[in-house]
Structures are given as structure tokens and as C-alpha cells.
């Protein structure tokens, strides 16, 4: 099977390409400079020349606060981009895999969300991603919509690398403050990619939550990162109003993998175990080079 990855230089896109290579799949990696997904003509051109069986669409404008200030940038890259990928997948008979987000809900549930909860996004970024879901569902005949939890992974150069950002913060100051009232499911990019490959093989098209098992507040997550990195820093829980932001991000973004479990396809492990793996096998090796 030949898979084409969009946003291939991003944190998730690059780890997805690594997992594909290690599992013996043919991968065609397209970064923004080679294929801007908001350009339908270019997307069609690439599909025509590459003829993939499946497109893993990870590319997105991922700055949540900037999306609030400049919504057009988010809707162009995320909504129009997903629409273009979906159209091209239909035209070239490829499966579309759209990486959406855990933040499509209003965050008021007070518990992890399942695929049967009604999305009601509250920021421009999350609206742009959710509209992308609707367009993929409408226009790509064979599609998966996959919603990851709070992603970690990639290399130390990735600007979205949350674990590395906390490591640098810990080196710069003795105490880290973190929100105790925002909840999510930390999810390793590599585990996410492996689970998505299993899903693609199943041909059981549709919408799935794909997160490592369990949930945590940002504070609990950061405390675990500091502990696993073996750093001495204190982590102090604060309310999220401590951090002035342009985007009113939802309080609950934790996910339950209800549909993966129901279909007997779940291979996701607990998030702490996945974090340990990432820190021990990849991050430590990079920062000690
Ligand atoms: N990180 C998380 O916690 C998280 C959680 C849930 C869902 N997600 C989703 O996971 C996916 C990957 O996110 P990530 O964390 O890996 O973010 P990332 O590191 O910012 O990767 C996104 C990539 O997409 C590229 N891109 C932006 N606009 C593009 C366009 N118009 N055409 C082609 N490529 C474009 C970016 O290139 P430039 O750097 O050149 O702009 C970047 O390389 C996204 O769809 C995101 O919505 C992320």
C-alpha cells in the first residue's frame, strides 16, 4: 500500500513517516513547500503523479491563539485544505485519513468525550478543524476522521513538541506553573500512527477517537514530564486564567476510544507508559547528543 503524508515536516507528519518506513509501507512525504493543501490545483497534480492508495492528512495551521486573531489563516489551511484533500482522494480513488482534533467539543462535559458526543467547537481553530471533518465526510467516499488527544513526540526542533518545551522551561526556571482545570489525554504520535495504520487495514471507515489511555490535567501531565525527565523542578497548579490567551480553549479535551474498543481494534497503551517510552528512547538520546 502506498501512503501519502501531508504536513510531513510537522511533529505528527514526520513521526507518521517514520512509522510507515519502519513498518515496510511505501510513503510519499509532502511538506508545505512541496504541496500547500489550500491549493486544489497543486493537490490534484500531486495525486495524479503519486497515485497513493491512501492520504494521511496531518497538515494544518496549528497555532490556536493566532487562529483567533487571524481566523482566515485557520479556515484556509484547515477547512479548505481538508476539502481539497477529500475531493482529490475521491477523484483518484484513495482513502482519506483526516487528522482532526480532541477540541471539537465545548469542553463542558466534565468527563472524556466519546465519538457519540455532539461536537460544538468554541474557538476558530477548532471550528476550522470540525468544518474540515464535515467536508471530508461529504466529499471523500472512503474516509477516516481520527481525533488524537494532546499530542507529544517529534524531535527537539519541532515547535509543537510540548515535552521538549517543558524541559527547556525547567532548565530556565526553578518552578513551572501549569493549569489544573484543563483536561486531556496525552497521546504519543508514534502510538497514534500505529493505531491509524491498523484502522486503515480494517476498512471500517468512519470517525474514531485515537488517544493513549487515561486522562490528566495539564498540571498532572507537566508534573509527570518533569518527573520522567528526572528534573528537580517544582510544578505549581494554577487556574487557567493565570495564562492570558486569545483563544478560549475548552476545559475538557480528554477522549475515550469508544469505537476502537467496540470493534476490538484498540492497541493504545496508557499515556504514562507511552511518555516513558518517548522520553527514554527518543528525547533522552537527542538531548544527550
Ligand atoms: N499537537 C497537538 O496536540 C494536536 C492535538 C490534536 C490534533 N492535532 C492535529 O494533528 C495534526 C498535526 O499537528 P502537529 O502537532 O504535528 O502540528 P505541526 O507540527 O504544526 O504540523 C503541521 C504541519 O502542517 C504544515 N502546514 C501548515 N499549513 C499548511 C498548508 N496550507 N499546506 C501544507 N502544509 C501545511 C506546517 O508547515 P509549516 O510549519 O511550514 O507551517 C507543519 O509542518 C494537525 O492536523 C493538528 O490539527 C494536533
Structure description:
With 289 residues, this protein is α/β, with parallel strands linked by helices. It has a single domain, classed as Rossmann fold, CATH 3.40.50. The protein contains ten helices and twelve strands. The strands form four sheets. Strands 2-1-3-4-5-10 form a six-stranded parallel sheet, sandwiched between helices. Strands 6-9 form a two-stranded parallel ribbon. A two-stranded parallel ribbon has the order 7-12. Helix 5 links the parallel strand 4 (95-99) and strand 5 (143-148). Helix 1 crosses helix 7 and helix 4 (71-91) runs parallel beside helix 5 (124-139). The two termini are 35 Å apart. NADP nicotinamide-adenine-dinucleotide phosphate binds next to helix 1, helix 4 and strand 6.
Ordered list of secondary-structure elements with their pairings:
Blueprint: E1 2-6, H1 11-22, E2 26-30, H2 40-50, E3 54-57, H3 64-69, H4 71-91, E4 95-99, H5 124-139, E5 143-148, E6 150-152, H6 162-172, E7 175-179, E8 183-184, E9 186-188, H7 189-202, E10 206-210, E11 216-217, H8 218-228, E12 234-238, H9 258-262, H10 271-287
Parallel strand pairs: 1-2, 1-3, 3-4, 4-5, 5-10, 6-9, 7-12
Antiparallel strand pairs: 8-11
Helix pairs in contact: 1-7, 2-4, 4-5
The structure holds NADP nicotinamide-adenine-dinucleotide phosphate (NAP).
* Alpha carbon gyration radius: 18 Å
What is the straight-line distance between the termini? 35 Å
Order of helices and strands: EHEHEHHEHEEHEEEHEEHEHH
* Number of continuous helical runs: 10
What strand line-up does the widest sheet have?
2-1-3-4-5-10
Oligomerization category of the chains in this entry: single chain
CATH class annotation: Alpha Beta
What is the average of the pLDDT values?
A: 96
CATH topology: Rossmann fold
Amino acid at each position: 500500500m502506498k501512503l501519502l503524508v501531508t504536513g510531513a515536516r510537522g511533529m505528527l507528519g514526520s513521526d507518521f513517516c517514520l512509522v510507515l518506513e519502519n513498518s515496510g509501507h511505501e510513503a510519499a512525504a509532502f511538506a508545505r513547500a512541496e504541496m500547500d493543501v489550500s491549493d486544489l490545483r497543486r493537490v490534484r497534480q500531486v495525486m495524479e503523479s503519486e497515485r497513493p492508495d491512501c492520504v494521511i492528512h496531518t497538515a494544518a495551521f496549528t497555532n490556536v491563539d493566532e487562529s483567533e486573531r487571524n481566523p482566515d489563516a485557520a479556515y484556509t489551511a484547515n477547512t479548505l485544505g481538508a476539502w481539497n484533500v477529500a475531493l482529490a482522494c475521491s477523484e483518484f480513488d484513495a482513502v482519506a485519513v483526516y487528522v482532526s482534533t480532541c477540541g471539537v467539543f465545548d469542553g463542558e462535559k466534565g468527563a472524556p468525550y466519546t465519538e457519540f458526543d455532539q461536537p460544538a467547537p468554541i474557538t476558530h481553530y477548532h471550528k476550522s478543524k470540525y468544518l474540515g471533518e464535515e467536508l471530508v465526510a461529504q466529499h471523500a467516499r472512503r474516509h477516516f476522521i481520527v481525533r488524537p488527544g494532546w499530542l507529544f513526540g517529534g524531535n527537539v526542533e519541532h515547535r509543537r513538541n510540548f515535552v521538549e518545551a517543558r524541559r527547556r522551561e525547567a532548565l530556565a526556571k526553578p518552578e513551572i506553573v501549569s493549569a489544573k482545570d484543563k483536561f486531556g489525554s496525552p497521546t504519543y504520535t508514534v502510538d497514534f500512527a500505529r493505531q491509524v495504520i491498523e484502522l486503515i487495514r480494517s476498512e471500517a471507515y468512519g470517525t474514531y477517537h485515537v488517544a493513549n489511555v487515561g486522562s490528566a490535567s495539564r498540571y498532572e501531565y507537566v508534573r509527570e514530564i518533569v518527573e520522567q525527565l528526572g528534573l528537580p523542578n517544582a510544578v505549581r497548579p494554577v487556574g487557567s486564567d493565570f495564562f492570558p490567551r486569545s483563544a478560549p480553549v475548552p476545559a475538557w479535551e480528554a477522549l475515550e476510544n469508544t469505537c476502537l474498543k467496540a470493534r476490538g481494534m484498540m492497541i493504545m497503551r496508557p499515556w504514562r507508559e507511552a511518555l516513558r517510552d518517548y522520553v527514554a528512547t527518543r528525547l533522552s538520546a537527542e538531548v544527550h547528543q
